[in-house]
Design a protein that fits this description.
This is FAD-dependent oxidoreductase. This protein is an alpha+beta fold and 373 residues long. It contains 15 helices and 5 strands. Helix 8 packs across helix 9, helix 8 crosses helix 11 and helix 10 packs across helix 11.
Amino acid sequence: MRAGQQPDGMLLVVGGCWSGMPPEANRTTDLLATVTDAADDMQLFWEAFPAADGRTIYMFSYSDADISRPSFAELLDTYCRLLPIYQGVPLEQLQPRRILMGGFPCYARAPLRPSWDRVLQIGDAGAGQSPLSFGGFGSTVRHLPRLAVGVSEALQEDRLSRVDLALLTPYQPSLSAAWLLQRAMAVRPGELAVASPGQQQQQQQRHQQQGGDQQTAQQQADLQQQQQQQHLQPRLGGGWLPPDQINRLLRCNFTVLRALGAWVLRPFLTDTFQALPLALTMMGMSLVDPMCVLRSMRQVGPGLVLSWVRHFFALTLFTLAHAVVQPLVHAVPLLRRSWRMRRWLDAWRWGAGLDYNHPAACSAAATTPTATT
C-alpha cells in the first residue's frame, strides 16, 4: 500500500529483562531517562521498570533508515556497556532472562487509509501509533472504544466500502503534531557537532551531579572516557548541533510541564496532545530557554515547523468542532442517527486528544511522574 516507501523515521530499541537486580534498585520506574549526551549521530534514551522475574530495561533512539545507522548488534554492545552506568549495578551481577531487538518504522502519512472495500487496517498495520511510542498496541487500546463501536455499526449498516471505512481511520492532528517532538529528539547523520574537552567536562560534571548516588567513581571515569572517545571522533561535513541539545530541550520541556501541573504532564506522557496544554507548553518553553527552542527549530527545519503549525491549527479546530457539535448531536435525533456524523464526532474527539480522562483527585505533588536527563 505504501509502494516500498522508505520510513520517515525509525525507533530503534534494544533491551530485555534481567534478574539479579538488588531489591533497593528495583523499586522505581523510568519513563524516559538519559545518561549520556548525543554521540555517533544518536541520542540514547532509557526506560526501566520492575518485572515479575527481575527488571525490564530498554535502550532506544529516535532515528531514521539511513544506511549509516548502527546495526542492532552494535546497539546491543552499547546497551551492555552503558547498562551498569545507568542502573549502578555491575553487568556480571545480572543474568539476562530475555533480550529484545527491534525497529519500529514511522510514517508521516498516518493513519493508513483503506485501499479496498471490506478491509480495515488496525494497530501496527494501520500505522496509527504515535511516532514517539514503541508500537501500535497502546494506540489500539486507546482507540478500542471508538473502533469497537465504529466497526459494529459499519457491519450493521453495511458501511463497508473503502470510503466509509476511511471514516474509522481519520486524520488525527494530535498524532501528526507529535512529529515535531520526534524529529527534535533525533539526530541526522553529520548533524552533530564535536564537543570540546571543556564541554565534555561540564557535561560529565552535570551527569555526575544528577546520577552520583547510583554511579561509582570507576563507572563515572569509564563514562567520561567513552564520551571523550565518541565525541572526539571527526565527523564528515562538520556538524553544528551541540551534543547536549536534546537533553537541554527535554530539561526545558519537563520544567515547563511540572510548572503547569499534572493536568498537562499526564496526557503528554501518554502521547495525548491537546490544544490548550500544547500551546501553553510551547509558550513556556520559549520563555524558559528561547535559544534552545530556536536551535530545535533549525534542527527540524522550516518545512516541518510550518507543517506542525498546520496540524496545531487543525487540533484547535477539532477541539472547537467537538465542543460545538456534540451538544447538537445529542439534542437532534436526525444527527444522532447519522453514521457519518457519529464518525466525525469520534474523529474530532480522538483527533483532539479529548478522549483522555484525567484521574480524579490527583495530587500533582504526590503522583506526578518524572523524567531524568
